[in-house]
Fold:
Amino acid sequence: MTNTSAEVSKLINQIKLLSPSASSLLEVTSREDHDLDEVVSIIKNDANLTAKVLKIVNSAAYGLRSEITAIDRAVGFTGETSLISIAMNEAAGMLYQKELTGYEGQKGDLWAHNLLTALAAKKIVPHAIKPVNGDVAFTCGLLHDIGKSILSDFLENTSAKVIQALDEKKVTSYENAESTILGIDHCETGFKLAEHWNLPEPIPSAIRYHHNPSAAPKEHRGLVYAVHLGDMLSMLAGSGTGADTLRYQLDPNYTDYIDLSEDDLAIIMVVIGDEFTKMQESMQDDQ
Structure:
């Protein structure tokens, strides 16, 4: 086994910090008691982000009859989740859009998978047995797999061996194989990046434990299970990150935290598909 944890940490430390606006947005939206006015205030104080939001809300995907020129009105059409998506894609686009060669993933796969996971996690939250904030779940879902962008470079030419090991039951899931090969998996890598970016809880915990939610801090466990299930639904909906798609274990204890029927799942799949298409189209119109 080659332990590349130190090399991964070194690479993470070379990644630029998030913009003040993106950092503020993540800090505000990680608090369960935040309100939309706080989010709008952050957008207003960033001219580039304001222009980006206005351009997207006036794109063909929204189909508005008249042009929106005020950010307050724009937020009414986009909603908080779209604002977070726009800000994170702007701040960390190089990571999200990177080709995941180590996973045999294409450019844009990571962004698409994380976005669909975020949408699914938010829709799962109303089925949580104990209250979980949907906007916080969305933010965590949007960042849950960010570690793959960094770990991918260390995994080149390994996917065939990993899949064979999984088929032969030598390892139980893809992240276990990552740890076997490198001494670190994408969850821990993402957690280290979250620390580098000084992201507030529960974001680091959601990233670190999204494949092992039962090990998450008790106060965040319901949230992490929502992200865990959202990740699975995203892959089931056809949005993965390459060779590792559907090569992870579903934690059977999710029923202690989330009450979902088959009908609920079917409805969520349809709704997130529609929302995902609209968000993708609006952001592509802005390119």
